[in-house]
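One-letter codes give the sequence; the integers encode the fold. A sample entry reads:
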Amino acid sequence: MIILSIETSCDETAIAVMRNGRETLSSELYSQADKHAIYGGVVPEIASRNHAATIGHLAELALKNAGIAKKDLDAIAVTAAPGLIGALLVGVSFAKGLAMALGIPLIPVHHIRGHIAANYIAYPELEPPFLCVIVSGGNSIIADVRGYTDIHIVGRSRDDAAGECFDKAARVLGLGYPGGPALDRLSAGGDDTLYALPSPAIDSAPYDMSFSGLKTAVVNIVHNAEQKGETIDTASLAASLAKTVSTILVPRVVLAAKEFSRSKIAIAGGVAANSRIRADFLEAAEKHNLTLFTPPLALCGDNAAMIGCQGFYEYRAGVCAGMNLDARATMNVSEAF
């Protein structure tokens, strides 16, 4: 089964052509990072306009590089939720038009399910059930993946996402946008014990997380130092932040794996590219005799291959949409379209 997949949930325009879910025939990406960098973050209107200007050409390029003609496509998969509503609407509208013109099925895909599926592409042997933590700029979720389309939320952030902490810290440290990679590089030369940062727990919800206080603490450290004319050890602050985020994530995933009797754990999302978090998960997996799956860096960020992969399993489960499909800015990963 050959699926053309579309991802436009934020500021990356991505198109891929996938065969039977896990084989990537082509995967194209247009990054708008430089257009948003001057604002220090994503501007929704700019993102939507650039998706609209780019998506048609990118689809043609993906088909050309895959060596596939439109008539050979069996279905169109598209991220329909969650994300920036204007950005999502560009992808959904394009997908509906293409599916209608070709007379083939339209498969709506949940963005977070797509991030989980990135691991299926990287690891042909991986099958549910397993425990997965999805960490990005907009989400921090621990999920029990019981089946390809049966996903149960075990824990989640009650406020900000882990990636938002990294983005905000990078901004106040003057590292620009996107800040995650720059912050990761900076932390390599730092002392992760120099700054004491909060790592809150939530009563009666051992798997839930909170990152708002952590984000505020980092901002306050920087602003207080500026007001007093003191010098910040930026590398050590970056290292301390990465350590704290990892300390919040890793023990919860290990504890959940034990409670739900999962021998396999996976990480996904943009923050899964952070070197400290990857290393700490690997160490914990070895210590607790768990098998860890970590997608390559190219599959951590938003991409269309992961949408095509999950779309394949959604289609096998009977998920298809009509021309009344609409984008949704918010949607629980456990919900079905």
